Amino acid sequence: MDTSTTTDTTLLPSFLIRFLDAMQTQAFWKKVLELASAAALILLFFFLLEIILRRVLRRTMTKQKDQLITKVLRYTGWIIAIITVLQGAGVNLTALLGAAGIAGIAVGFAAQTSISNLISGVFLISEKPFQVGDVIQIDDVTGTVLFIDLLSVKLQTFDNRFVRIPNESIIKTNVINTTRFPIRRLDIWITVSYTSDLQKVAAVLKDLAARNLYALGNPEPFIFFDKYDVSGINVLFGVWYEQSRFVDLKNSILSEIQLRFREEGIEIPYPKRDVYIKGTTEAGAAGQRVIRAGVEAPNNNKERS
Question: Which domains are delineated in the chain?
Answer without folding.
Answer: 13-110 (no CATH), 128-177 (2.30.30.60), 182-305 (3.30.70.100)
